[in-house]
From TrEMBL:
One of its GO terms (biological process) is amino sugar biosynthetic process. The active site is at residue 370. The gene is glmS. This is Glutamine--fructose-6-phosphate aminotransferase [isomerizing]. Keywords: Aminotransferase, Cytoplasm, Glutamine amidotransferase, Repeat, Transferase. It is found in: Cytoplasm. GO terms for molecular function: carbohydrate derivative binding; glutamine-fructose-6-phosphate transaminase (isomerizing) activity. Catalyzes the first step in hexosamine metabolism, converting fructose-6P into glucosamine-6P using glutamine as a nitrogen source. Its EC number is 2.6.1.16. Residues 42-190, 224-365 form the SIS domain.
Amino acid sequence: EKQGFKHFMLKEIHEQPGVVRASLDAYFNPAESTESPINLGLPADLYNDLEQIQILACGTSWHAALIGKYLIEQLAEISTQVHYASEYRYAPSPVTANTLIIGVTQSGETADTLAALTMEKERRQGREPKYQARLLGITNRPESSLGHLVPHVISTLAGIEIGVAATKTFTAQLMAFYALALDLAARRQTVSKDTLDKIINGLRQIPKEIEATLESQERLTEQLAHEFAETQDFIFVGRGINFPIALEGALKLKEISYIHAEGYPAGEMKHGPIALLDAKVPVVAIAIPGSVYEKVISNAQEAKARDSRLIGVTPVNDGEAAEIFNDLLPISHVEELLSPILTVVPLQLLAYHIAARRGLDVDQPRNLAKSVTVE
Ligand code: M6R
C-alpha cells in the first residue's frame, strides 16, 4: 500500500527516519558487561586479529560499502577494500591472512555478489586457518540465498522495499556500517569512549534531522525538478565521506529519470570532466563543514567559472556558500562523519521529482529489476 504517496519510492524515502530509529534500537543496545556499546550478535572470533577487510557488492550496495570503508578505516583503523562483485570474481585480490569478507546485498539474491562470495569461500578452503574465509553478509533479507551462503549476517532493518530504486535499504545499510565500524573501534580501542558516545548521541539525533530535511525539501526539490526536467546531463560532486553520496545521487537520477548523470570526487573534476561543463550542465555539490568543506567550495567555484548552475547540498546558508550556489538544498548542521545519512535525502527527492515530472514509471524503471539474479 502506498499510504497516500503517489509512488512507493516516495513512501520509502519518507520511511527513512523510522528505519534509522529501528536500527538504533536494534544495534545500539549492548549486552551488559561488554566493552562495546554496540550489539550486532556477532562472535568475537570474527573480529579477532583482523588485519584486512574486503567488501563485495553491486550498485547502491557498493556505494554503501564505500561509506563503510571510510568509517572502518577512519574509526577502527583496519585496511578495507571495496570491490564490484562482478569484477572481483575474475580478478580477485591475493589471499591474505585474517581477512573479513563482507558481502552487501539488500535482496540477498544478486548473482554477481553471491558468485564472488562463493569463489572467495572455495579458494580459501583447505588453507591454514588464518587464511580461511571469515564471511559476513549484510542484507535486508536474511532468509535469502546470501543468508544460506554465509555463516553470519547483519540484518538491515528497512522492511520490504518495492521501488526498484534503492532508498531506505541504502540508509539501513549505512546504519549497519556505522554499527560495525563503531563496534570494531570499541573492541580495538581505536577511539576513546567519549568520542564513541559523541558519535552515538549524534546518530540518535539523525531521525528527527531527516524528518526536518524531508519537510523542507519536498517543495524545493519539486521546484528544481520543474526547472530541470528537460536537462540532459547532471554532475554530482562530493569529497571524503560524501563522495559515495555523489555517486548515489547520480545513480538515482540515471535509473529513474533516464538523464545522464555522473558522480565525481570534486577534486577530480579538473583532471578531465571539467571539460564537459557549460551553462547546460548543472552541478550538484555536497558541501559539509569539516575536513574538505573549503576544498569543495573551491571546486564548485571552478565549475561556476564555466557557467554551470550550482546546486548546493549544505547546512551553510551564508558566506561563500550563499554567494556561490544558485540554489540551496539546505540540510541541518550535522557532524561530517554522520552527514551521508542526511545528504542523500535531497538527492533521492530530486531524482524522484524529476522522474515524476517527466511522467516516468518511477517504481518500475525500464530495463531494471529489483533483484538482478543473472550474472
Ligand atoms: O540487492 P542488491 O543490493 O544486491 O542490489 C544491487 C544493485 O542491483 C542495486 O543496488 C541497484 O543498483 C539498484 N537499482 C539501485 O537503486
